[in-house]
Amino acid sequence: MLRVENLVAAYDGIKALRGVSIELGPGEFAAVIGANGAGKSTLLNTVSGLVRPVSGKVLLDGKMVAGLPAYQIARRGLLQVPEGRMIMGNLTVRENILLGSLTRNGRTPAHDLDGILDLFPRLRERMQQVAGTMSGGEQQMLAIARALMGAPKVLLLDEPSLGLSPLMADLVFTALSKLHASGLAILLIEQNVHRALEVAQRAYVMEQGRIVQEGSSRELINDARLIEHYLGGAVAAA
């Protein structure tokens, strides 16, 4: 479904990605984990077209999308829920969700509006509320709902639990597990390493712009040496 090959990206001449290669199969749930500054967000932003790669390939359904404008990549079904949510705060919840449909490009969504609201009941209660007045957790649900309206082939999520209460984070991760169960391919970047490894099937570990290890989530969550070396004991502390 998604293949990234030897991806290189740079800011002001400094390489942030150094030949990253990852794969995501149809319906697979994978996570990218690593310490702050490892290049995780740059990876998602380059895959989604927000950062133009220096070199390398990004293929969606076997077709090259690397180097295309972000809106064209989104219209092909590679949709990102960005860090910070980036909702339209002056629009209502309903208007924000419906904006997502602009990227469908003829695709039939796996989740219609009612299905999305079943996934996020809090949004159903707030359809006429101005989005900027909602809590951070509710805004995160809204950002995911907006992406789902775009009928994604692959859903990219950048730090979805950042700044959320434990309760709201639980609701978000429960929704992601349900989306995976429905067959949606998901690539997750998440600061809460323990939760990321709980919900994902497989994970990549990044360090200084490179993939340094990959494996099943079960293997990685039980690898104390790896957690201590690359993540500073983040799993143990979670």
From TrEMBL:
Record's protein name: Amino acid/amide ABC transporter ATP-binding protein 2 (HAAT family)
Pfam families: ABC_tran
SUPFAM superfamilies recorded: P-loop containing nucleoside triphosphate hydrolases
Entry's Gene Ontology molecular function annotations: ATP binding; ATP hydrolysis activity; branched-chain amino acid transmembrane transporter activity
Family the UniProt entry places it in: Belongs to the ABC transporter superfamily.
Annotated keywords: Amino-acid transport, ATP-binding, Nucleotide-binding, Transport
One GO term (biological process): L-amino acid transport
Annotated source species: Chelatococcus asaccharovorans
